[in-house]
Amino acid sequence: MEYQNDELNFLHFFDKIGYNIGEGMIHHVNLHYHKSFDFFPELVMFFAAYTVNKTFRRKTVAPTHIKDSICFFFKNVFDDTPRSKRTESPAIRAFPATYSYTSTFRKDPRRVQVVAVIISAEYLKGFLKEDASKFQYLFDTRYDFIIEEIMTDDILRTINDIVKKEEAGNLSAFHYKLKAMELIFYLFKSLSKREQPVHQKLSHKDIQSIYKVRDKILSSLSQPGSIDELKQIAGMNELKMRKIFTQIFGMGIYDYYQHFRMQEAARLLREEKLSVSEVGYQVGFENLSHFSRTFEKYIGKKPKKYSLEQ
To answer: Mind telling me which SUPFAM superfamilies this protein's record contains (predicted)?
Structure first.
């Protein structure tokens, strides 16, 4: 069933799938546009853009009416929003129905954009077939988990196909269900590149601490924090910090830092039209040859070539 773009229908959709959005979301959020689809009992999908007009906190839980669901949230992923108007960088999070955490929604005039696909674990296993064993950590109900994945061009393109203004026309529901599964396909294609470490059970405190480490890394891309500083922020030893960071984000601390450092360099070349030398110095490189090699490793092209193609 498709739910059209009005607030009462959107609230009815959440009620139908057993998703408690909380009083804060009702009273302190302005919805700009939204659309939702349910394909019971396999999956539901919705997308929305909103602004927060008053800071509030809410406990995030998965819908109760989809058995053993896994939630995939794609945040700030629409390509028609300038970086300056985004609340934060694009991100993908996945967590199971058993996992709950408290989120803070901060007052901000900039739009937050989300696409969510919530899918039955059994249906997902059937979709993955023999490949399901590679992602056992998603289906092991003994452990809660949260993972965050890097956005890829395929995922961005698919999401923008989903939320574009043109309607699908005939077979609309079929079209959107296929798009939801296409999105899941590209996400799992990306997840398949991860190493297969043993996933440990994480406490809410552990997760909060690692996200503080992540926030510190992203707050200063031109000057990385020392491991000693990151350990102090995390409140845990180095080995534990590195293991949990890799478990959640799919890569080590240094690679994560370099990935986003080069993403920022690419943005400066693409949007700010700075020279290669200006960008290199701005993201903290003293040796431009080193910058060029690092940029090519993470972006796939030398910065000069990348700049000329923009």
So the answer is: Homeodomain-like
| Domains 2-191 and 204-309 fall in the same CATH topology | no
Over residues 251-290, the pLDDT tens digits come to: 999 999 999 999 999 999 998 999 999 999 999 999 999 9
pLDDT digits (tens, 9 = 90+) for 185-198: 999 999 998 886 66
Locus of tokens 């030893």 = 237
Q: What angle do CA 78, 84, 88 make, to 5 degrees?
A: 65
Residue 2 has pLDDT above 60, yes or no: no
* Domain boundaries 2-191, CATH class: mainly beta
Q: What is the CATH number that goes with domain 204-309? A: 1.10.10.60
